[in-house]
Amino acid sequence: MLNSELVFIPSPGAGHLPPTVELAKLLLDRDQRLTVTIIIMNFALGPEHNAETRLSTPRLRYVDIPCDESTMALISPKTFLSAFVEHNKPRVRDIVRGITDSDSVRLAGFVVDMFCVAMIDVANEFGVPTYTYFTSGAATLDLMFYLQAKRDEEGDDVIELKNSESESVLHVPGFVNPVPAKVLPEVALDKEGGSSMFLNITKRFRESKAIIVNTFQDLETHPLEYLLSSSNDIPPVFAVGPILNLENKKTDDHKSDEILSWLNEQPKSSVVFLCFGSMGSFNEKQVKEIAVALERSGHRFLWSLRRPVPKDKFDFPKEYENFEEVLQEGFLSRTSSVGKVIGWAPQMAVLSHPSVGGFVSHCGWNSTLESIWCGVPVAAWPLSVATESGSRLEMVVEVGSGNLRSRVLLSKPIVETEPTTAATETADVTTMENPPVKTVVKETKASAPRKPKNPAAHPPYLEVFRLHFVCCF
């Protein structure tokens, strides 16, 4: 009997490959009839993928598509992802054709990242179904469907929400609280192509055979209940999370060892960890603002700090050669007994370390799930479309009711003259000493499904998805 081959296509974003690989491994563990090819669309400006993430096995292989730098330079930063995926369609088609020419496997379907749904066209050419892997949360998916329906089914100009009165709110099905129009993701309201890209991607989700979401029921009860019961032309939704690369807790490079050695010397739950994802960075004045707040707070801290990229360029933040070029004179020496400034951080290894008691985060979905898994409270500082979603707003409102001073930080510069309340709270609301928040975090950690060591003991939603897929063999 021929094996059934699944083709996985992750987004080129640094936070998208690891959960894609982990999902593929989980499916392979649970069905010996499956083989997987992961097609990686590279672009030269991205960071190198972790070697341990890409270890091939007899049933799991990786195929790299080289970056065409001359073409990439012509793509607008506003619509980079959609144009990048379109550009790679012919190359993906050629790779898949090679799979179909094989006598040893049968092509069974595509599993595409949320930003790669244009590859549905390629899957259709080969007559196989496409499953969308939504690597953010259910609340974000819920909000995206809501905005797309307002445009395509109700005829509303979503961009005009940007000009709404400041107190205007949206009642999104599946959300506990109304959403102020002013906190909608910037890209959804962008007039220069970002809004159309965002909503057109969402529209194509509806063409999927099913949508796999990296979340779990106890974390996003209300959005999942809506998505699972909806009759609004939404495909079946499977919550299969939390899917994490737990191997990232193991490090063997010199820089990681140095960071963990420093953490080993700190008291339990005493360190504030500041890290803002693969795309997160601040300008020089903002960096100085945060530095003043940290120094005034007196908290122990570990700060992942990287150089920002030009606003008109799609790129990843780079490493500083010398942190003194951006920090106040004497900051490093004055804080050397309580703090450490680093570049790239082995995030999972840091969050799981017992000395870490708080996490200042951009709230990317991987970071959110990792903080929950490790039971570390978060001070949320959203920076981009993936982190401005209503899921974060809902968490802030519900956790903060009367027990925690909370602030939603939008994608706006912090005041650049003197330390503001928001910047000071970068250190102060880490919640390390806040009993109500610590209780909520512990309860949420306890509710997160743990992956069993025995592959036969299937997490319920992952097994339901597997059975749904197997029916298509």
UniProtKB/TrEMBL annotation:
InterPro entries listed in its UniProt record: UDP-glycosyltransf_plant, UDP_glucos_trans
Keyword Glycosyltransferase: yes
Domain of life: Eukaryota
Alphabetical keyword list: Glycosyltransferase, Transferase
Keyword Transmembrane helix: no
Molecular function as annotated in GO: UDP-glucosyltransferase activity
Family under the similarity heading: Belongs to the UDP-glycosyltransferase family.
Function: May glycosylate diterpenes or flavonols in leaves.
Protein name: Glycosyltransferase
Lineage start: Eukaryota, Viridiplantae, Streptophyta, Embryophyta, Tracheophyta
